[in-house]
Amino acid sequence: MRRRVSFPYVGWMAVFVVVPMVLVLGFSFTSADGGFTFENFSEMTKYAPVFARSIWLAFLSTVICLIIGYPAALVMSREKPIVASAALMLLMLPMWMNFLLRTYAWMSILENNGFLNQLLGALKLPPVAIINTDGAVLLGMVYNYLPFMILPIHTVLHKMDKHLLEAASDLGADSVKAFARVILPLTLPGVLSGVTMVFVPSVSTFVISKLLGGGKTMMLGDLIEMQFTGNAYNPYLGSAISLVMMVMVLASMTIMNRFGDGEESAVMM
Question: Could you tell me the sign of the dihedral formed by the alpha carbons of 73, 153, 92, 253, in that order?
């Protein structure tokens, strides 16, 4: 009976996950004339700056989200339930809006004649040129992915036994030591989950970089899209770049999971 129930799920995974990945793998090692080749991977070397920029901006957005998200989750976990619920509602409210619309809203805020510069002009301050820069892309990524950092950390903090802090206090630990030896190790799984959930979409984004970067900040997602939809149509190179990006994502997730398992074992000991 259980096997019959799982058939639709297995079929769905096979058609929409396994088959596309097999096609990407096959195209990655295929030349334009249909032969086997490694030239698609060697051709990627000329796009090394795009790889470096994508990883760097994804890293920065992850760090900024962690710096903002961890204190926010910690404060929310210590508030009254009604206040914490209201804060979570405000945090999730923008997520109900379409991702593309949220990014367009930031375009109207950051553009040269947008709301931000109008506000600065009303305050007799000089305008700022943020749109179509790496800073605008970074801001868009932090805004869109910050909830994915706060929510897993808040969930772990909410489930944490508060008696552990009382025990640490009874044993002479001040607030700093209690945070370093009790709160931080126990929340590490949530931190690693948040880091993964922010870094993975950040390194592969293309909508944010296209709209807020104005095409000047090319990232891996833009490069892949260009190979499939642009004038320089080359699905073989696009598949190779996609395969490398998938390997990067899987490697980062594996490292994060192993690091989390090691830290969790250390805490248990």
Answer: positive
Cβ atoms of 212 and 61 within 8 Å: the answer is no
Q: Are 77 and 165 in contact (CB under 8 A)?
A: no
Which tokens is 141 given?
Answer: 């990524």
Distance CA 215, CA 232 (A): 16
Please report whether residue 24 resides in a domain. Answer: no
CB 187 within 8 A of CB 153: yes
Q: What pLDDT is attached to residue 3?
A: 61
Residue partners of 15: CB distance under 8 A and separation at least 6: none
Per the structure, the count of domains in the chain is 1
Structural domain contains residue 20:
no
Percent of the chain with pLDDT over 70: 94
Task: State how far Cα 30 lies from the chain centre.
Answer: 31
Q: Which domain holds residue 151?
A: 47-264
Which tokens in the block code for residue 240?
A: 């190779």
Share of the chain above pLDDT 90, in %: 42
CB atoms within 10 A of CB 204: 18
Give domain status of residue 26, yes or no. no
Asked whether residue 115 is assigned to any structural domain, the reply reads yes
Q: Which CATH number covers residue 232?
A: 1.10.3720.10
Report how far residue 252's alpha carbon sits from residue 57's, in angstroms, rounded to the nearest whole number. 15
Q: Which residue has the tokens 């769905």?
A: 12
Q: Report how far apart, in Å, the C-alpha atoms of 104 and of each of 13, 130, 197, 209, 268 are.
A: 33, 14, 23, 12, 47
- Helix extents (H) in the chain: 2-13, 19-28, 39-43, 48-78, 81-92, 99-110, 115-122, 134-159, 163-170, 175-178, 184-203, 207-212, 220-229, 235-268
CB 88 within 8 A of CB 221: no
